[in-house]
Amino acid sequence: MELFGIWVAALLTLCIYSFLYQDNPFYRFAEHLFVGISVGYGIVLSIHQGLVPFALKPLWAALTGESLSGLVKLIPIGVGLLFFARLSPQHVWLIRYPIAILIGFGAGIAIPNVLRANIFEQTRGTIEPFAAMHAGTLSGFGVLEAILMVAGVVCTLTYFFFSVEHRGPVKWLSKVGIAFLMIGFGSAFGNTVMGRVALLIQRVDFLLGDWLNLIS
Amino acid sequence: MKRQVPLILCFAFGIVMILTQFSPHSFSQGIYEEVISWTLIISPFALVLATATLIQTHVARIQRRTDHWQYSFVVFAGLITMVVIGVPFGPQHQAFEWLYTNIQVPMDATMFSLLAFFIASAAFRAFRARTFEASLLLITALIVMMGNVPVGDLIWNTVLGWLPLEDGASKARQWILDNPNLSARRGIILGVSLGIISQSIRIILGIERSYLGGGD
Description:
The complex is a heterodimer of chains A (about 220) and B (about 220).
Chain A: H1 2-17, H2 25-63, H3 74-81, H4 96-135, H5 140-159, H6 169-211
Chain B: H1 4-22, H2 26-64, H3 71-89, H4 94-126, H5 132-148, H6 150-159, H7 168-178, H8 180-204
Helix pairs in contact in B: 1-2, 2-3, 5-6, 5-7, 7-8
């Protein structure tokens, strides 16, 4: 079964790489199979990691008399079922209920978490080296890095600040901000390319090693 | 009923999620965990609805005999196989794991590795150093890419061996990632986070209602 699995994986890999030549039936087959398998995988995981432990098990416990608190789970199950109102044109407005709950939940959970993780922590990380500078424990190069960090953050934010016209000093600050952004995008691009190349090496290694046994 | 109740639900869930995160009391934490479990119950229904829409789309493709309609059967085959095995027996079942390991994982990796080729051709067009900003992006990406692989340090030590800095490629990459790149990312994160918070407040207060859609 393992050998069969390697052959299946290898043939599907080649089907996908055949797209490098041009669009063809082998690629289309693999592409559509990938969509079907991925959606099926997502459904199975969301049912077994969401619906079963959080709804069906407590509900079953309530029905068998173990713990009646599980009956509360009928409410989210009922709300979730309202999603299927989408399939009936007369009752399509009912879909707003579960969407409103999920949107409200997402917005409510975002505010404190984003404030804490993305605003307070990032600001603290930016100005924290100045405490070390004040204590005299930061090297000369460290001081330079700390100043560069603050300058980069301020200039990048200035570039995205549209409440004032970008003229005079603001224009120059935003120009420096663009330079920092370009370095950021260049780093992101470099890392992305290397990530993709690593995947390519892994697939070629699989084809030549596991499948064809040409390399050990 | 059609618009007011969803707005009230959105407000209530949003406020509850904010308040419960600021209170360490067991009652508050109990509500917090219950609401999280509710969303984990409701979300799979959205996925099932999305799958129903996918099925509708492919059934329509088959009925209308549009281009490559035959491949819609492949989507169904992949989807049904995963669901029929995964839903009753769980994701730990041997057959489900076999499908995941030998079909989904290799195809996922191959699809992403395919981007290595397209990203290379895109880079060739994008990385023409016509302006200062483009040059900055090009140089940063090159340093990050060279610093990611051992050959980068080998080239550095061979060509720039007379410099008092060993393995300069990987060190330069790390310095770029830790300093100018991080400051640009912090600027972006701060800007995006402020946007998320303001949008979340608008949603909770019912100022932003686009998620309700059109109609009554």
